[in-house]
Amino acid sequence: MKKTVFFIGCCAFLSFILWCVDENGKVLFDCFSLKINSPLWLFVFVLLSGVGLLVCAIKAFIYEIAKQKTHVTQNYGIKAKKGFENEALVVLFKTMTATTEGDSKSARKHLKELEKIIGKGMMTDLLELKLLKSEKNFDAAQKLSLKLTESKESELVGLKALIEASSKKKDFEEALKSANRAFEARQDLYWVVENTFRLRALASDWRGALDVLEVGLKKKLIDHERYALLKAVTLYEIGLNEKKDAHELVFLRYLTEAHNLYPAFVPVALDLAELYEKQGQMRKAEKLLKEVWRLKPTYDVAQAYLKLFKTDSLLDKVQRMEGLAILNSKEPSLNNFLLAELDMKAKLFDKAYSELEIFLINNPATKKIAKLISLYEKQVRKNQKAALSWEKRAKVCEDDCLWVCSSCGEVSSKWKPVCKKCGKFNPFEWCLCLDKKEK
User: Fold this and answer.
1) Does residue 5 form part of some domain?
2) Which of 142, 149, 205, 428 could form a cystine bridge with 158, CB 3.0-4.6 A?
3) Other CB atoms within 10 A of residue 241 CB
4) pLDDT in tens, 84-135
Protein backbone atom coordinates (compact mmCIF):
# COMPACT_ATOMS: atom_id res chain seq x y z
CA MET A 1 0.00 0.00 0.00
CA LYS A 2 2.81 2.39 0.93
CA LYS A 3 4.62 1.68 -2.34
CA THR A 4 1.44 2.29 -4.32
CA VAL A 5 0.89 5.63 -2.59
CA PHE A 6 4.49 6.58 -3.24
CA PHE A 7 4.16 5.68 -6.93
CA ILE A 8 1.10 7.89 -7.21
CA GLY A 9 3.16 10.61 -5.53
CA CYS A 10 5.85 10.23 -8.19
CA CYS A 11 3.19 10.50 -10.90
CA ALA A 12 1.96 13.66 -9.21
CA PHE A 13 5.49 15.03 -9.12
CA LEU A 14 5.98 14.38 -12.85
CA SER A 15 2.64 16.05 -13.53
CA PHE A 16 3.81 19.00 -11.44
CA ILE A 17 6.98 19.35 -13.52
CA LEU A 18 4.86 19.25 -16.70
CA TRP A 19 2.57 21.91 -15.21
CA CYS A 20 5.60 24.10 -14.51
CA VAL A 21 6.62 23.85 -18.17
CA ASP A 22 3.13 24.44 -19.64
CA GLU A 23 0.42 25.25 -17.15
CA ASN A 24 -2.13 26.18 -19.82
CA GLY A 25 -1.74 23.01 -21.91
CA LYS A 26 -5.00 21.25 -22.82
CA VAL A 27 -5.89 17.75 -24.04
CA LEU A 28 -8.84 17.50 -26.44
CA PHE A 29 -10.00 13.91 -27.09
CA ASP A 30 -13.11 13.03 -29.08
CA CYS A 31 -13.62 9.38 -30.04
CA PHE A 32 -17.03 7.74 -30.53
CA SER A 33 -19.14 8.95 -27.60
CA LEU A 34 -16.14 9.68 -25.38
CA LYS A 35 -15.19 13.36 -25.15
CA ILE A 36 -12.36 14.63 -22.95
CA ASN A 37 -11.31 18.25 -22.43
CA SER A 38 -8.92 18.53 -19.50
CA PRO A 39 -5.65 20.23 -18.45
CA LEU A 40 -2.59 18.47 -19.87
CA TRP A 41 -0.96 17.89 -16.47
CA LEU A 42 -4.16 16.29 -15.03
CA PHE A 43 -4.54 14.04 -18.07
CA VAL A 44 -0.90 12.93 -17.77
CA PHE A 45 -1.33 12.27 -14.03
CA VAL A 46 -4.40 10.09 -14.57
CA LEU A 47 -2.78 8.30 -17.50
CA LEU A 48 0.48 7.62 -15.66
CA SER A 49 -1.30 6.53 -12.50
CA GLY A 50 -3.60 4.19 -14.42
CA VAL A 51 -0.81 2.54 -16.38
CA GLY A 52 1.45 2.40 -13.34
CA LEU A 53 -1.12 0.73 -11.13
CA LEU A 54 -1.59 -2.03 -13.71
CA VAL A 55 2.05 -3.04 -13.43
CA CYS A 56 2.76 -2.12 -9.81
CA ALA A 57 2.75 -5.86 -8.91
CA ILE A 58 5.98 -6.33 -10.83
CA LYS A 59 8.63 -6.32 -8.12
CA ALA A 60 11.50 -5.03 -10.23
CA PHE A 61 9.51 -1.94 -11.22
CA ILE A 62 8.43 -1.26 -7.66
CA TYR A 63 12.02 -1.65 -6.50
CA GLU A 64 13.23 0.88 -9.11
CA ILE A 65 10.57 3.37 -8.00
CA ALA A 66 11.61 2.91 -4.37
CA LYS A 67 15.23 3.72 -5.24
CA GLN A 68 14.12 7.07 -6.60
CA LYS A 69 12.31 8.02 -3.42
CA THR A 70 15.39 9.32 -1.63
CA HIS A 71 16.53 11.24 -4.72
CA VAL A 72 13.18 12.98 -5.14
CA THR A 73 12.80 13.93 -1.48
CA GLN A 74 16.37 15.20 -1.16
CA ASN A 75 16.51 17.24 -4.36
CA TYR A 76 13.02 18.72 -4.41
CA GLY A 77 12.39 19.45 -0.78
CA ILE A 78 9.48 17.03 -0.27
CA LYS A 79 9.41 16.28 3.44
CA ALA A 80 5.83 15.22 4.00
CA LYS A 81 5.09 13.90 7.44
CA LYS A 82 4.26 10.21 7.66
CA GLY A 83 0.66 9.57 6.71
CA PHE A 84 0.19 13.00 5.11
CA GLU A 85 1.15 12.05 1.54
CA ASN A 86 -2.44 12.01 0.25
CA GLU A 87 -3.23 15.35 1.85
CA ALA A 88 -0.08 16.87 0.29
CA LEU A 89 -1.14 15.64 -3.16
CA VAL A 90 -4.61 17.13 -2.82
CA VAL A 91 -3.25 20.51 -1.71
CA LEU A 92 -0.60 20.43 -4.48
CA PHE A 93 -3.28 19.92 -7.14
CA LYS A 94 -5.41 22.67 -5.64
CA THR A 95 -2.46 25.07 -5.78
CA MET A 96 -1.63 24.16 -9.38
CA THR A 97 -5.26 24.47 -10.50
CA ALA A 98 -5.79 27.84 -8.79
CA THR A 99 -2.57 29.21 -10.31
CA THR A 100 -3.57 28.02 -13.80
CA GLU A 101 -6.98 29.66 -13.41
CA GLY A 102 -5.38 32.93 -12.28
CA ASP A 103 -6.94 32.74 -8.79
CA SER A 104 -3.92 34.16 -6.97
CA LYS A 105 -5.64 34.47 -3.59
CA SER A 106 -6.71 30.79 -3.45
CA ALA A 107 -3.37 29.65 -4.84
CA ARG A 108 -1.46 31.44 -2.05
CA LYS A 109 -3.77 29.97 0.56
CA HIS A 110 -3.18 26.44 -0.73
CA LEU A 111 0.56 27.07 -1.04
CA LYS A 112 0.77 27.98 2.66
CA GLU A 113 -1.07 24.76 3.53
CA LEU A 114 1.37 22.80 1.37
CA GLU A 115 4.37 24.41 3.07
CA LYS A 116 3.02 23.28 6.46
CA ILE A 117 2.80 19.71 5.23
CA ILE A 118 6.02 19.28 3.20
CA GLY A 119 8.04 22.29 4.33
CA LYS A 120 9.77 24.83 2.10
CA GLY A 121 11.87 23.54 -0.77
CA MET A 122 12.30 23.56 -4.51
CA MET A 123 8.72 22.46 -5.19
CA THR A 124 7.22 25.30 -3.16
CA ASP A 125 9.71 27.74 -4.71
CA LEU A 126 8.59 26.69 -8.20
CA LEU A 127 4.96 27.16 -7.25
CA GLU A 128 5.78 30.56 -5.78
CA LEU A 129 7.60 31.50 -9.00
CA LYS A 130 4.57 30.58 -11.10
CA LEU A 131 2.40 32.70 -8.83
CA LEU A 132 4.70 35.71 -9.06
CA LYS A 133 4.73 35.48 -12.86
CA SER A 134 0.92 35.30 -12.99
CA GLU A 135 0.79 38.33 -10.68
CA LYS A 136 3.34 40.12 -12.93
CA ASN A 137 5.57 40.73 -9.93
CA PHE A 138 8.75 40.45 -11.99
CA ASP A 139 11.04 42.02 -9.36
CA ALA A 140 10.19 39.29 -6.84
CA ALA A 141 10.28 36.65 -9.61
CA GLN A 142 13.78 37.79 -10.53
CA LYS A 143 15.00 37.44 -6.93
CA LEU A 144 13.47 33.99 -6.53
CA SER A 145 14.92 32.91 -9.89
CA LEU A 146 18.39 33.95 -8.70
CA LYS A 147 17.90 31.78 -5.62
CA LEU A 148 16.99 28.78 -7.81
CA THR A 149 20.13 29.23 -9.93
CA GLU A 150 22.28 28.67 -6.83
CA SER A 151 21.31 24.99 -6.71
CA LYS A 152 22.67 22.64 -9.35
CA GLU A 153 19.39 20.71 -9.53
CA SER A 154 17.30 23.82 -10.20
CA GLU A 155 19.89 25.96 -12.04
CA LEU A 156 18.35 25.64 -15.52
CA VAL A 157 14.81 26.21 -14.22
CA GLY A 158 16.05 29.32 -12.43
CA LEU A 159 17.93 30.61 -15.46
CA LYS A 160 14.90 30.19 -17.72
CA ALA A 161 12.70 32.04 -15.22
CA LEU A 162 15.39 34.72 -14.81
CA ILE A 163 15.51 35.30 -18.58
CA GLU A 164 11.73 35.65 -18.71
CA ALA A 165 11.55 37.99 -15.70
CA SER A 166 14.46 40.15 -16.88
CA SER A 167 13.00 40.39 -20.39
CA LYS A 168 9.63 41.47 -18.99
CA LYS A 169 11.43 44.22 -17.05
CA LYS A 170 13.29 45.24 -20.25
CA ASP A 171 16.53 44.39 -18.46
CA PHE A 172 17.96 42.73 -21.55
CA GLU A 173 21.55 42.96 -20.34
CA GLU A 174 20.76 40.81 -17.31
CA ALA A 175 18.68 38.48 -19.47
CA LEU A 176 21.65 38.03 -21.82
CA LYS A 177 23.95 37.12 -18.92
CA SER A 178 21.53 34.42 -17.84
CA ALA A 179 21.10 33.17 -21.41
CA ASN A 180 24.88 32.93 -21.94
CA ARG A 181 25.19 31.01 -18.67
CA ALA A 182 22.45 28.60 -19.76
CA PHE A 183 24.11 28.22 -23.16
CA GLU A 184 27.39 27.25 -21.50
CA ALA A 185 25.59 24.64 -19.39
CA ARG A 186 23.25 23.13 -22.03
CA GLN A 187 23.25 23.55 -25.81
CA ASP A 188 20.73 20.84 -26.56
CA LEU A 189 17.63 22.66 -25.33
CA TYR A 190 15.48 24.71 -27.71
CA TRP A 191 14.67 27.50 -25.25
CA VAL A 192 18.39 27.94 -24.44
CA VAL A 193 19.36 28.32 -28.11
CA GLU A 194 16.33 30.49 -28.97
CA ASN A 195 16.80 32.94 -26.09
CA THR A 196 20.59 33.17 -26.40
CA PHE A 197 20.34 33.88 -30.13
CA ARG A 198 17.60 36.49 -29.65
CA LEU A 199 19.34 38.31 -26.81
CA ARG A 200 22.72 38.35 -28.55
CA ALA A 201 21.01 39.80 -31.61
CA LEU A 202 19.30 42.40 -29.41
CA ALA A 203 22.73 43.36 -28.06
CA SER A 204 24.05 43.58 -31.68
CA ASP A 205 26.46 40.72 -31.03
CA TRP A 206 25.79 39.32 -34.50
CA ARG A 207 28.81 37.05 -34.73
CA GLY A 208 27.95 35.58 -31.34
CA ALA A 209 24.36 35.11 -32.52
CA LEU A 210 25.67 33.31 -35.62
CA ASP A 211 27.63 30.88 -33.41
CA VAL A 212 24.44 30.04 -31.50
CA LEU A 213 22.54 29.57 -34.75
CA GLU A 214 25.07 27.04 -36.02
CA VAL A 215 24.78 25.10 -32.76
CA GLY A 216 20.98 25.10 -33.10
CA LEU A 217 21.20 23.59 -36.58
CA LYS A 218 23.78 21.02 -35.50
CA LYS A 219 21.62 19.93 -32.56
CA LYS A 220 18.54 19.81 -34.87
CA LEU A 221 16.71 22.38 -32.78
CA ILE A 222 16.05 24.67 -35.77
CA ASP A 223 14.55 23.51 -39.06
CA HIS A 224 16.37 24.39 -42.29
CA GLU A 225 13.87 27.00 -43.51
CA ARG A 226 13.95 28.98 -40.27
CA TYR A 227 17.73 28.56 -40.11
CA ALA A 228 18.04 30.06 -43.61
CA LEU A 229 15.99 33.13 -42.66
CA LEU A 230 17.76 33.71 -39.33
CA LYS A 231 21.18 33.29 -40.89
CA ALA A 232 20.29 35.64 -43.75
CA VAL A 233 19.28 38.34 -41.25
CA THR A 234 22.43 37.77 -39.19
CA LEU A 235 24.74 37.88 -42.23
CA TYR A 236 23.01 41.06 -43.42
CA GLU A 237 23.66 42.79 -40.09
CA ILE A 238 27.30 41.64 -40.07
CA GLY A 239 27.58 42.97 -43.62
CA LEU A 240 26.15 46.35 -42.61
CA ASN A 241 28.86 46.64 -39.96
CA GLU A 242 31.46 45.90 -42.64
CA LYS A 243 29.88 48.62 -44.81
CA LYS A 244 30.31 51.13 -41.98
CA ASP A 245 34.01 50.29 -41.99
CA ALA A 246 34.10 50.98 -45.76
CA HIS A 247 34.58 47.30 -46.65
CA GLU A 248 32.19 47.35 -49.62
CA LEU A 249 33.46 44.16 -51.24
CA VAL A 250 33.00 42.26 -47.96
CA PHE A 251 29.54 43.81 -47.70
CA LEU A 252 28.72 42.52 -51.19
CA ARG A 253 29.88 39.02 -50.22
CA TYR A 254 27.65 38.96 -47.14
CA LEU A 255 24.68 40.32 -49.13
CA THR A 256 25.11 37.68 -51.82
CA GLU A 257 25.29 34.85 -49.28
CA ALA A 258 22.26 36.19 -47.40
CA HIS A 259 20.23 36.53 -50.63
CA ASN A 260 21.13 33.01 -51.75
CA LEU A 261 19.98 31.68 -48.39
CA TYR A 262 16.66 33.55 -48.36
CA PRO A 263 15.68 35.24 -51.66
CA ALA A 264 12.47 36.73 -50.20
CA PHE A 265 14.38 38.89 -47.71
CA VAL A 266 13.51 42.39 -48.98
CA PRO A 267 16.19 44.59 -47.28
CA VAL A 268 19.00 42.39 -48.65
CA ALA A 269 17.52 42.41 -52.16
CA LEU A 270 17.22 46.21 -52.16
CA ASP A 271 20.81 46.77 -51.03
CA LEU A 272 22.18 44.12 -53.39
CA ALA A 273 20.29 45.61 -56.37
CA GLU A 274 21.71 49.04 -55.47
CA LEU A 275 25.26 47.65 -55.49
CA TYR A 276 24.65 45.96 -58.85
CA GLU A 277 23.37 49.27 -60.22
CA LYS A 278 26.49 51.10 -59.02
CA GLN A 279 28.63 48.50 -60.75
CA GLY A 280 26.64 48.92 -63.96
CA GLN A 281 25.13 45.44 -63.77
CA MET A 282 21.63 46.62 -64.64
CA ARG A 283 20.32 43.27 -65.87
CA LYS A 284 21.35 41.61 -62.61
CA ALA A 285 19.64 44.33 -60.61
CA GLU A 286 16.46 44.08 -62.72
CA LYS A 287 16.31 40.29 -62.45
CA LEU A 288 16.88 40.36 -58.70
CA LEU A 289 14.16 42.95 -58.05
CA LYS A 290 11.66 41.07 -60.21
CA GLU A 291 12.43 37.90 -58.27
CA VAL A 292 11.88 39.45 -54.84
CA TRP A 293 8.77 41.28 -56.15
CA ARG A 294 7.22 37.88 -57.00
CA LEU A 295 8.11 36.46 -53.60
CA LYS A 296 7.51 39.47 -51.35
CA PRO A 297 5.98 42.49 -53.12
CA THR A 298 6.50 45.78 -51.26
CA TYR A 299 6.26 49.45 -52.19
CA ASP A 300 10.04 49.94 -51.91
CA VAL A 301 10.80 47.03 -54.25
CA ALA A 302 8.56 48.53 -56.97
CA GLN A 303 10.10 51.99 -56.51
CA ALA A 304 13.64 50.56 -56.71
CA TYR A 305 12.70 48.71 -59.90
CA LEU A 306 11.24 51.80 -61.58
CA LYS A 307 14.28 53.91 -60.61
CA LEU A 308 16.57 51.58 -62.55
CA PHE A 309 15.27 53.06 -65.80
CA LYS A 310 16.53 56.64 -65.65
CA THR A 311 15.41 57.66 -69.15
CA ASP A 312 11.80 56.47 -68.82
CA SER A 313 9.07 59.05 -69.28
CA LEU A 314 6.05 59.04 -66.98
CA LEU A 315 4.05 57.07 -69.57
CA ASP A 316 6.93 54.59 -69.85
CA LYS A 317 6.88 54.15 -66.07
CA VAL A 318 3.13 53.49 -66.14
CA GLN A 319 3.59 50.81 -68.79
CA ARG A 320 6.52 49.30 -66.92
CA MET A 321 4.50 49.22 -63.68
CA GLU A 322 1.60 47.55 -65.47
CA GLY A 323 4.00 44.84 -66.60
CA LEU A 324 5.37 44.47 -63.07
CA ALA A 325 1.84 44.27 -61.62
CA ILE A 326 1.22 41.06 -63.59
CA LEU A 327 3.95 39.37 -61.53
CA ASN A 328 2.30 40.33 -58.22
CA SER A 329 -0.56 38.06 -57.24
CA LYS A 330 0.06 38.25 -53.47
CA GLU A 331 -0.74 41.97 -52.91
CA PRO A 332 -3.15 43.08 -55.68
CA SER A 333 -4.09 46.23 -53.75
CA LEU A 334 -0.44 47.30 -53.88
CA ASN A 335 -0.71 47.24 -57.69
CA ASN A 336 -3.72 49.59 -57.50
CA PHE A 337 -1.85 51.83 -55.06
CA LEU A 338 1.26 52.18 -57.23
CA LEU A 339 -0.65 52.56 -60.51
CA ALA A 340 -2.91 55.23 -59.00
CA GLU A 341 0.18 57.25 -57.99
CA LEU A 342 1.81 56.93 -61.41
CA ASP A 343 -1.41 57.57 -63.34
CA MET A 344 -1.99 60.80 -61.41
CA LYS A 345 1.56 61.96 -62.17
CA ALA A 346 1.11 61.08 -65.84
CA LYS A 347 -2.29 62.89 -65.83
CA LEU A 348 -4.15 59.72 -66.73
CA PHE A 349 -6.92 60.78 -64.38
CA ASP A 350 -9.65 58.32 -65.38
CA LYS A 351 -7.28 55.37 -64.99
CA ALA A 352 -6.05 56.78 -61.68
CA TYR A 353 -9.56 57.13 -60.28
CA SER A 354 -10.43 53.59 -61.39
CA GLU A 355 -7.41 52.25 -59.46
CA LEU A 356 -8.37 54.31 -56.40
CA GLU A 357 -11.92 52.94 -56.44
CA ILE A 358 -10.69 49.35 -56.61
CA PHE A 359 -8.27 50.01 -53.77
CA LEU A 360 -11.02 51.45 -51.53
CA ILE A 361 -13.27 48.44 -52.14
CA ASN A 362 -10.70 46.18 -50.44
CA ASN A 363 -8.95 48.56 -48.02
CA PRO A 364 -9.54 51.58 -45.80
CA ALA A 365 -8.41 54.98 -47.02
CA THR A 366 -4.79 55.65 -46.09
CA LYS A 367 -2.93 58.96 -45.92
CA LYS A 368 -1.50 58.71 -49.46
CA ILE A 369 -4.77 57.47 -50.96
CA ALA A 370 -6.73 60.31 -49.31
CA LYS A 371 -4.23 62.84 -50.68
CA LEU A 372 -4.50 61.38 -54.18
CA ILE A 373 -8.32 61.61 -54.06
CA SER A 374 -8.05 65.18 -52.80
CA LEU A 375 -5.77 66.00 -55.73
CA TYR A 376 -8.21 64.34 -58.15
CA GLU A 377 -11.15 66.33 -56.78
CA LYS A 378 -9.17 69.55 -57.07
CA GLN A 379 -7.61 69.09 -60.51
CA VAL A 380 -10.26 67.07 -62.38
CA ARG A 381 -13.65 67.67 -60.80
CA LYS A 382 -12.79 71.19 -59.62
CA ASN A 383 -14.64 70.37 -56.41
CA GLN A 384 -12.76 72.39 -53.81
CA LYS A 385 -15.10 71.37 -50.99
CA ALA A 386 -14.58 67.65 -51.61
CA ALA A 387 -10.84 68.21 -52.05
CA LEU A 388 -10.63 70.01 -48.71
CA SER A 389 -12.67 67.25 -47.04
CA TRP A 390 -10.27 64.54 -48.27
CA GLU A 391 -7.28 66.68 -47.33
CA LYS A 392 -8.55 66.92 -43.75
CA ARG A 393 -9.36 63.21 -43.74
CA ALA A 394 -5.79 62.40 -44.78
CA LYS A 395 -4.56 63.77 -41.43
CA VAL A 396 -6.51 61.16 -39.45
CA CYS A 397 -6.15 58.22 -41.85
CA GLU A 398 -3.75 55.40 -41.04
CA ASP A 399 -0.24 55.44 -42.45
CA ASP A 400 0.54 53.12 -45.34
CA CYS A 401 3.52 51.07 -46.51
CA LEU A 402 4.81 50.28 -43.02
CA TRP A 403 6.78 47.55 -41.30
CA VAL A 404 4.79 46.29 -38.31
CA CYS A 405 5.97 44.16 -35.39
CA SER A 406 3.83 41.02 -35.37
CA SER A 407 4.35 40.68 -31.61
CA CYS A 408 3.55 44.11 -30.12
CA GLY A 409 2.28 46.17 -33.09
CA GLU A 410 5.17 48.64 -33.11
CA VAL A 411 5.40 50.36 -36.51
CA SER A 412 8.45 51.48 -38.46
CA SER A 413 9.06 53.06 -41.86
CA LYS A 414 12.01 50.69 -42.34
CA TRP A 415 12.66 47.03 -41.58
CA LYS A 416 14.53 46.35 -38.31
CA PRO A 417 16.15 43.10 -37.17
CA VAL A 418 14.88 43.40 -33.58
CA CYS A 419 11.92 45.19 -32.04
CA LYS A 420 13.28 47.47 -29.34
CA LYS A 421 9.85 47.65 -27.71
CA CYS A 422 9.21 43.95 -27.10
CA GLY A 423 12.67 42.46 -27.76
CA LYS A 424 11.46 39.99 -30.42
CA PHE A 425 13.84 38.99 -33.21
CA ASN A 426 12.87 39.69 -36.85
CA PRO A 427 9.19 40.35 -36.05
CA PHE A 428 8.66 43.14 -38.62
CA GLU A 429 6.39 42.35 -41.54
CA TRP A 430 5.59 44.72 -44.36
CA CYS A 431 1.96 45.76 -44.71
CA LEU A 432 0.17 48.08 -47.10
CA CYS A 433 -2.46 49.25 -44.62
CA LEU A 434 -2.20 49.25 -40.84
CA ASP A 435 -5.91 48.56 -40.35
CA LYS A 436 -5.68 45.53 -42.60
CA LYS A 437 -2.67 44.24 -40.64
CA GLU A 438 -4.45 44.60 -37.30
CA LYS A 439 -7.35 42.51 -38.51
Assistant:
1) yes
2) 149
3) 15
4) 667 877 888 888 888 888 899 999 999 999 888 888 888 889 899 989 988 9
